[in-house]
Amino acid sequence: MSGAGLSTHVLDTARGRPAAHIPVQLHRIDGAARTLLTRATTNTDGRTDEPLIPRGQLRTGTYELTFHVAAHFKDLTTPTGTSQAEPFLDEITLRFTVADATAHYHVPLLVSPWSYSTYRGS
Hints:
Elements: E1 5-7, E2 10-12, E3 17-18, E4 23-30, E5 33-41, E6 61-68, H1 70-73, E7 76-77, E8 83-84, E9 91-98, E10 104-106, E11 109-111, E12 116-118
Protein name: 5-hydroxyisourate hydrolase
Function: Catalyzes the hydrolysis of 5-hydroxyisourate (HIU) to 2-oxo-4-hydroxy-4-carboxy-5-ureidoimidazoline (OHCU).
Enzyme class: hydrolase
């Protein structure tokens, strides 16, 4: 995806594959106000079908991406052979700042049943 905008994808690092069917919400944060901008769900490639913010519509400011991962990891068999009926992680919220609205921001989530990480991708 090229040009200014905002995109994401989710990788399941425990299984070594994209995380499909993860609900995602994007909010814009203005002081105490939190405004829902969009909802999406990851596809079989772990990406949303469309950018969360299309090219040319990104603004500087603070945003929150919330990934609802509990259902993805429910009943996952752990390395000890037990089932994880109640996942450790439920909602993962990433708050980040867009400083350059002319740049493309890609915010991936690498997640396992017990941990997660992110970075600013390209």
